[in-house]
Amino acid sequence: MSRAVCPGSFDPLHNGHLEVISRAARLFDEVIVAVSTNYAKKYRFDLEQRMMFCAESLAHLPGVTVLPMGEGLLADFCREQGATALVKGLRSGLDFDYELPMATMNRHLADIDTVFLPTDTEFAHVSSTLLKEVASLGGDVTPFVPDAVNRHLRGSA
Question: How many C-beta neighbours within 10 Å does residue 103 have?
Fold first, then answer.
């Protein structure tokens, strides 16, 4: 059985994430969505909210589970979960340049390969940071986020 990890902070989860995770679910028997916390970042949503967004939005995908990554290295988390691959979505060459050294380090630390999936062009411009900014200024992000996230960004949840 093949198992992959799709890591991210998902603050917030958006349709670009969903698209990559759903494609990963077609490639692997099991996909663990590892919701991480980077203490150097300032989050709009806490870990429980981000986990809820992921669980609710991915419930329709068989073989996909949502877990908190916890503290420590992603490589260690993957080893503990018995994963053979990491899946990372790429929007551009800049993402590749950022992700490649981490992929090489994770292979060194845990003998885990990283699979890069280019995002659908429909979502190539979408980032969690941009969506938070647009929503905070009153812009409509409905086309780019799941309903649960949209409700929380609009403050009506």
Answer: 17
Contacts of residue 151, defined as CB under 8 A and 6 or more positions apart, other chains included, come to: 157
- For residues 44 and 129, what is the distance between their CA atoms, to the nearest angstrom? 10
Per-residue HEC secondary structure of the chain comes to CCEEEEEECCCCCCHHHHHHHHHHHHHCCEEEEEECCCCCCCCCCCHHHHHHHHHHHHCCCCCEEEEECCCCCHHHHHHHHCCCEEEEEECCHHHHHHHHHHHHHHHHHHCCEEEEEECCHHHCCCCHHHHHHHHHCCCCCHHHCCHHHHHHHCCCC
- The C-alpha atoms of residue 83 and residue 4 are separated, in whole angstroms, by 5
The Cα–Cα gap between 24 and 147 comes to 22
The residue with tokens 């905070």 is 136
The residues that are catalytic are 17, 41, 91, 128
pLDDT at residue 36, as a whole number:
94
Q: What is the mean pLDDT of residues 106-135?
A: 94
pTM above 0.85, yes or no: yes
Which residue type occupies 77? F
Radius of gyration of the chain (CA): 15
Q: Would you say 11 and 45 are in contact if contact means Cβ atoms under 8 Å apart?
A: yes
